[in-house]
Amino acid sequence: MSRGVGVIGAGPGVAALHLPTIARLRERFHVAHLADQGSGRAAELAARLGVAASHGTAALLADPAVDVVAVCSPPAEHARHILDAVDAGARAIICEKPLATTEDDARAVIDACRRAGTVLLVATNHFYDEAWDRAKRHLVALEGEVRTITVAAALPPNDRYHAVVTELVAGAAPARGAPDLTDRELAAGVVRQLVLGLAVHDLPAVRDLARDFQGVDFAAAVPPIGYTIGFRASGVHITLTAVMLPDGPDALWRFTIGTSADRIDVEFPPAFVHAGSATVRVRADDVRSTTYRREPEDGYLREWIALDALIEGAVTVEYHELLDDALFAIRLADAAAETVRRGGAS
Amino acid sequence: MREHVRVFVRADDYRAAVEGLPLAAELVDRPSGAVVVIDGRGDWWRAAAAAAADGASALLIAEPVVARPEAVAELAEGVAMPVIVNRARLRHDLVRAAIERRHGMQPRVLVAECTAAATVLPTMVRDSVGWLRELAGGPLRTVSAAVGSTGGTALVRTIDTGLAGTLVITAARLDAGGVLRVQGLGEIRTELELDISMRSATLATSTAEGRLVDPALFETPERASLRRAIDVVTGRDTTRDLDDLRHDVELARDILGGDLARFDNL
């Protein structure tokens, strides 16, 4: 049975990511309604699909054709839109990361979903990538103690990847600005926003290996838009470095786990594309280096398939894990921002 | 026919290097007037000072172990001749290639990761610092370091421009040698990976046009460093290797909290 999806938001993350993904899962989902805040982009996307479009969320949430709500609005709106959807009786919600931008909002949305029995999934595609499962199995098999985690990302403008999955109208993807990062307060705000919008892709996986946030050792904004952050969780030393570039080579996005016995690299393909899973490369202590093949399904497909399994009841929603993931990200974002404010070191 | 540069050496691998430069070098049995190769194990700085006192024309320090910064400083201030330092993890030819491929464009941020057994890790940290310094284009200072017995992280910045670099240190049960990876992220991306046990060194430079992988270096580090020493003593090249070593040792000690033996012996 194909479930109708009501999509709140009509930016590039919808047009170039969720709509092409849903199109690949027709037997499970189809787009039933799109809504924006007045930009008109929802109507343009809806017209291509022959479905309803509206401004705001009321009409979408009242539409009987909508079984599943996809919250793809700006991050600061996520909590409000989730609560609106729960109040409207939505059966299931998939929310783009982050779940919420404050601890209070995170607790409020989890409480509401848990009380209403609403299925909830946060669209952290890296965590759902099959390569991540493989990396974890490797860790369990080798019994190495995780000691360091390094995430490095260098990202060119997304429009080159939008262009290989869809056709956007001109101006649909706004150009990146270059904030004045010499202003510490501004830099702190940028770093906080980037942790919740970019680093968050990998924080559930980080927390999978190092569950308890301990503190930030250093944090700095990186021009033109980026960050480098060093922190500790459960005794593991973690660095996150990312920079968003005006031009340059194809995206690098690598998650490296350093254990007492080996090094595991999980290298993700660029965002938006459907090129399969990440690759996993293991450099073991016995001088072997093993590279695993890419699996055909990417993390975007698998997160929607996971949503389907939750709706079917084959898997249980772990509300406490979703909350703990959200709190981990928010605490890191707040601590990193404070460290930037104070000059970079704790 | 050009004059041979005299080379005084005891180790077999450097003898082979001299024999691999038959037109440029010749083995001699006294240090006076010769490029003297100093074994980098033990108190190498004392052996270097002694060779300088014996009239060496230049010193070639072969793979120096981590020394106290004060010892390196004392040597630097006490000798008046060129000093070439062969650090196989920081080969001069590989460094030069990495920098040239960037065409003068600074990275936006640097990330260095070193993974090795406890006995080797301080040297890896020192050489990781060397790579950060070279790719950043200038001396560095430590902003923050959090290093324990199993590893840690550090943030460094160039003193002049404030360019940031992070260092991730992992103590691991790897066979002798370890793995070192350095990335210069930006519109031009540099990725350098050294796997000592695998005997591989890969330098890749990526731009919007694609990824260029440099040819493998088949010349031994011994021959490459000796050839450079010959170029220095004949005026075709210069060296600041000892100053660079001093910088890297000081920063490594700073990052490691003054304890160069702090890692768990696995």
In a few lines, what is going on in this structure?
The complex is a heterodimer of chains A (346) and B (266). Chain A is α/β, with parallel strands linked by helices and 346 residues long. Helices cover 37% and strands 27% of the residues of chain A.
Spell out the blueprint of helices and strands:
The complex is a heterodimer of chains A (346) and B (266).
Chain A: E1 3-8, H1 12-23, E2 29-36, H2 41-49, E3 52-55, H3 58-62, E4 68-71, H4 78-87, E5 92-96, H5 103-116, E6 119-123, H6 125-128, H7 130-142, E7 146-155, H8 159-162, H9 184-197, H10 203-209, E8 213-221, E9 225-233, E10 236-244, E11 252-259, E12 262-267, E13 279-284, E14 289-292, H11 299-312, H12 319-341
Parallel strand pairs in A: 1-2, 1-4, 2-3, 4-5, 5-6, 7-10
Antiparallel strand pairs in A: 7-11, 8-9, 9-10, 11-12, 12-13, 13-14
Chain B: E1 5-8, H1 12-19, E2 25-27, E3 35-39, H2 44-53, E4 58-62, H3 69-78, E5 83-86, H4 92-100, E6 109-116, H5 121-136, E7 140-148, E8 151-158, E9 164-171, E10 179-185, E11 189-195, E12 200-207, E13 210-213, H6 221-233, H7 241-255
Parallel strand pairs in B: 1-2, 1-3, 3-4, 4-5, 6-9
Antiparallel strand pairs in B: 6-10, 7-8, 8-9, 10-11, 11-12, 12-13
In total, how many beta strands of chain B?
13
State the low-pLDDT regions of chain A, or none: none
* Biggest β-sheet: strands ordered side by side in the sheet of chain A: 8-9-10-7-11-12-13-14
Low-confidence stretches of chain B: none
Please report the distance between the alpha carbons of the first and last residues of chain B: 54 Å
Query: Cα-atom Rg of chain A, whole angstroms?
Result: 20 Å
The percentage helix of chain B is: 25-40%
Helical segment count of chain B: 7
Order of helices and strands of chain A: EHEHEHEHEHEHHEHHHEEEEEEEHH
What is the strand content of chain A?
A: 25-35%
